[in-house]
Each structure stands twice: as C-alpha cells, then as structure tokens.
Amino acid sequence: MTTLDRFTGRLRGLSPRSVDFLVVAVVAWFTGLDAASNDPDYRQADWLTWLLLAVSLLALVWRRRWPVAVTVVTGAACAGWALYGHIGELLNLPVIVALYTVAAQGPLWSLADV
Fold first, then answer.
1. In which element (H, E) is residue 4 found?
2. Which residue has the higher pLDDT, 15 or 55?
3. Cβ atoms of residues 14 and 22 within 8 Å
4. Cα angle for residues 27, 28, 30 (degrees, 5° grid)
5. Fewest beta carbons less than 10 Å away: which of 96, 98, 110, 112?
6. Coil, strand or helix at 46
C-alpha cells in the first residue's frame, strides 16, 4: 500500500460535512491568495472583495444540499467582482466548484416530471 493509497483511504473515511469544510478551506486558500495579489492596473482588494469572498465561501458550505442556489450566489459574487473591476482567474473558483457539484449530482428534473 502506497502513501497515496493511505491518504485517499483517510479522505474516504471523512464525514460528508467534514469534506464540505475541507473543500471550502481549499477554495478559500486559493481564492483568497488570488484576491490579495492585485495587478497594479486593476482595482485593489478592499472590503467589498472580502465580503464577496465570504459570501461565496459561506454558500459553498451548502453546495451539496442546494447546488443550484449556491451556484447562483457564487455566480453573482463572481459577477460582482468583475463589475467592480477585479481581475483574477481564481476568483471564479467558488462558482466552478458549485457548477461541478450541480453537474456531478445529475439531472435536477427529468422529462417524466413534465
């Protein structure tokens, strides 16, 4: 058994809520670093930047329970960053994780429901 096998085995043993918080922590780390490192030609991080990040991260905690609502919230925060003048690829990470959750959970409705 390799070290990677042991590590993945431990991850599989985590509770779903623990995995949610781990995902939020990883997204917070990378998105926060991107928000903090500003290009001088664009708007610098301020209170609105961190507020939008906090709203996105708080929404991501609920991504498995309400994936579409979380996608809307994180997408609105991402649009807010863009409209406010921020640039950064990782500012999209919360909405990417939310969209992945929607896709991974499968269809939200079927033609039999129509």
1. helix 3-12
2. 55
3. yes
4. 65
5. 112
6. coil
Counting every residue, how long is the chain? 114
C-alpha–C-alpha distance, residues 98 and 114, integer Å: 26
- Using CA atoms, how far residue 44 sits from 33, 38, 51, 54, 55, in Å, is 13, 6, 14, 17, 19
pLDDT in tens, 23-42: 999 999 999 988 888 777 77
Q: What percentage of the chain exceeds 90 in pLDDT?
A: 43
Indicate whether 96 pLDDT > 80: yes
CA distances (Å), origin 93, targets 13, 19, 27, 108: 25, 17, 7, 22
Report the C-alpha dihedral over residues 103, 17, 22, 12, rounded to 10 degrees: -80
- CA 31, 36, 40, 46 torsion: positive or negative? positive
CA 33, distance to chain mean position in Å, is: 14
Distance of CA 71 to the CA centre of its chain: 9
The residue type found at 52 is: L
